[in-house]
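Exercise 7.
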Amino acid sequence: MSHITRRHALFGIGLLPLVGTAATAQVTASTFDVKLRSGRILQVTRWDAPKPTGYILFSHGGNSWPTQYDKLAQVLVGAGYTVLAPLHTDSLKIADAERADLKKAFGDRIEDMAHLGGYAAATANGLPLIAIGHSYGSLFALMLGGALTYVAPVRNAAVKAVVCFSSPGNIPGLINPAAYTSLEVPLLMVTGDKDVVPGFTADWHDHLLPFEGTPVKGSYALIVKEGTHQLIGGQTSAEFGLVTDVTVDFVRAVTLNKETVPMKLSANGAEKAELRHK
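Solution. The predicted structure, written as tokens, is:
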């Protein structure tokens, strides 16, 4: 796709790899391989909840990899969700000779998430799926929820909600006014008023485009004061706890078929963040 340039690749298209995400593991991540229709072998990292009430399909940020998000995965598993996360072809964990730039990885990521969504829908025994992504990865979570249909129609009917941590913002040639109008499920968009990426996203408000564009009622935007692009890295425990508490509340409301239940921040949380809703 010509709209993804070398400049975007250098800056991880909105993701600088997370730092400081080490956590004492409550659930050990495992991996398995699946063969895609293209013949490519996709590695998937899995965190299993003992008695899952739903499955999370997680797309990591540009140049990153699943286990950088172990701290987030542990929270989701603790809330009762099994997490599945593919290793995308732009990851720095892939050998240089085999790694794709973000232009090539765009199509690979669509294939990764579409296949993983089909796999999960077939093996989750009817449990709901939730698509979650960070930065660049949020685009592909949104597509499973029905967004960007003009790029590829990969909507997965089993996906009941989408959570985005720092969307990649406004990508010329890709994001247009219709990008998020086709979204079919409730959205939680998480960002912060310091959520910028030098050379790519200069205005943090651009991360709100999916929330502003979706017509779906019961969608929310969480804006954390002083929150950066690393909000789910957990360097500041209070911010990480606030973000994950709201995420779990949102996901539970949707998977329990309570999409209309309004979410509110605690008095303490309201001092640190703003929660907008539709």
